[in-house]
């Protein structure tokens, strides 16, 4: 099948298959979709500002005139050579999927068709067509993970001839991700802020990120684990106002409770104290959170953590069944867990 896994996309873009004359770049990370589409387009060697060589279209134009994509791909260049037909903002448009299918059945001889799309489910017609055609390639773009952010950061640091401490790198990685363009923008802003210094420190990251760090889901959870209810509620409201989805707060809390459950089980079996268990955790606990995690382990028993996870799972189920209750249900659950944490610490 003509598709790549997410971690294989950059390698393919470095050496694209010339037989792939129809390329679909899709995924929920629109910044990464745009960046990779531009990279592929630039790799064609065509002048992207030349309207005779590169035709840029919007999905809405094709939806109203399905034959236009086929016509553009079939048109012979006035001055010879290949042309690039670049279609943006495609989605579940049926007309676009049908036009791409027709092109796959009769591949263009003098054109390359590049399609940018949003998040497409596995059975989406456009994705199905691209994945099943020999002349096409489907390239998924998902939110940056730790390794991807490391690569992005290293690229920017190398270009700026700068270094970053391990602690500063960990802090930065905990605050960015989800959208490639936004992540790159934050990294470039950090490098600009630290211009003139050879090494970026934690203080540089904290100052550069500003409000971005202030509304992170991790900070909401940390306030809850410490039993600081007013602080947790204030941070949660800021996070929600900044566009953070309630599910992200719940999923982050679940990950923290799962980590605590694993560490607490290690304590119960080995007899070691919280500091020793946290110091030996793999992957390592971010240095700025170690004290918070140690105190949480002292407050929460294995049974209490299991009950907390069960409550979180029930809340996730409720928010899926009743989306209109997502914000209030999330707030009530986190407040309840915060009350437990405060009581256990007293």
What does this molecule look like?
- By secondary structure, this protein is α/β, with parallel strands linked by helices.
- The chain has three domains: 6-140, P-loop containing nucleotide triphosphate hydrolases (Rossmann fold, 3-Layer(aba) Sandwich); 146-211, Helicase, Ruva Protein, domain 3 (Orthogonal Bundle), CATH 1.10.8; 217-345, Zinc Finger, Delta Prime, domain 3 (Up-down Bundle), CATH 1.20.272.
- 60% of the residues lie in helices and 10% in strands.
- The chain has 18 helices and seven strands.
- A five-stranded parallel sheet has the order 2-3-4-1-5, with helices on both faces.
- Helix 4 (67-74) packs parallel to helix 5 and helix 7 (146-160) runs parallel beside helix 9.
- The radius of gyration is 25 Å and the shape is elongated.
- The model has no long low-confidence stretch (mean pLDDT 87).
- CATH domain class of the largest domain: Alpha Beta
Q: Which stretches of 5+ consecutive residues score pLDDT under 50?
A: none
Structural class: alpha/beta
Task: State the end-to-end distance.
Answer: 59 Å
Main beta sheet strand tally, sense and closure: 5 strands, parallel
CATH architecture of the largest domain: 3-Layer(aba) Sandwich
């Amino acid at each position: 099948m003509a598709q790549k896994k997410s971690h294989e996309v950059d390698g393919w873009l470095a050496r694209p298959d010339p037989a792939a004359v129809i390329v679909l770049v899709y995924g929920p990370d629109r910044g990464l979709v745009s960046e990779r589409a531009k990279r592929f387009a630039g790799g064609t060697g065509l002048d992207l500002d030349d309207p005779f060589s590169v035709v840029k279209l919007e999905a809405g134009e094709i939806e109203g005139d399905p034959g236009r994509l086929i016509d553009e791909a079939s048109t012979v260049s006035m001055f010879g050579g290949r042309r690039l037909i670049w279609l943006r903002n495609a989605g579940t448009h049926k007309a676009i999927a049908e036009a791409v299918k027709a092109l796959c059945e009769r591949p263009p001889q003098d054109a390359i068709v590049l399609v940018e799309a949003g998040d497409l489910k596995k059975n989406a017609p456009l994705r199905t067509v691209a994945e099943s055609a020999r002349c096409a390639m489907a390239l998924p773009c998902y939110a940056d993970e730790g390794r991807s952010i490391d690569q992005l950061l290293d690229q920017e640091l190398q270009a700026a001839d700068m270094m970053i401490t391990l602690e500063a790198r960990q802090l930065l990685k905990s605050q960015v991700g989800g959208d490639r363009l936004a992540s790159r923008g934050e990294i470039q802003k950090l490098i600009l802020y630290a211009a003139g210094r050879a090494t970026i420190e934690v203080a540089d990251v904290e100052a550069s990120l500003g409000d971005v760090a202030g509304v992170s889901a991790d900070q909401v959870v940390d306030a809850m684990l410490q039993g600081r209810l007013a602080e947790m509620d204030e941070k949660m409201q800021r996070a929600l106002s900044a566009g953070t989805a309630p599910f992200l707060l719940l999923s982050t809390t679940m990950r923290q409770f799962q980590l605590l459950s694993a560490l607490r089980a290690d304590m119960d079996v080995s007899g070691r104290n919280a500091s020793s268990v946290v110091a030996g955790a793999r992957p390592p606990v971010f240095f700025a959170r170690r004290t918070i995690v140690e105190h949480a382990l002292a407050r929460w028993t294995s049974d209490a953590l299991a009950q907390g996870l069960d409550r979180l799972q029930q809340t996730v189920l409720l928010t899926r069944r009743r989306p209109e209750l997502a914000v209030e249900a999330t707030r009530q659950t986190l407040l309840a867990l915060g009350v437990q944490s405060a009581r256990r610490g007293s």
